[in-house]
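Posting this for the archive.
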Amino acid sequence: LSYRNARTSPSQYGLTPRELEVLIILAQGNTLARVQEELVISEGTAITHRRNVYRKLDVHSKQELIDFVAGS
């Protein structure tokens, strides 16, 4: 993953290690079902992690998340 600039890192946004894993999976264009599958977590847990990632990064959709990570 690349970030908006060299000084930006996931820890600056207060992401937990698990939220970072969710971010990486979603930013690759994968579905929430894929997050559940790869991390072996329930749907509710995946939804909670996604909600937290979106809130902390101030994005509102998967496309915004992908754009954020790409630096657009």
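The two ends are 13 Å apart (CA to CA). Residues 1-7 have pLDDT under 50 and may be disordered.
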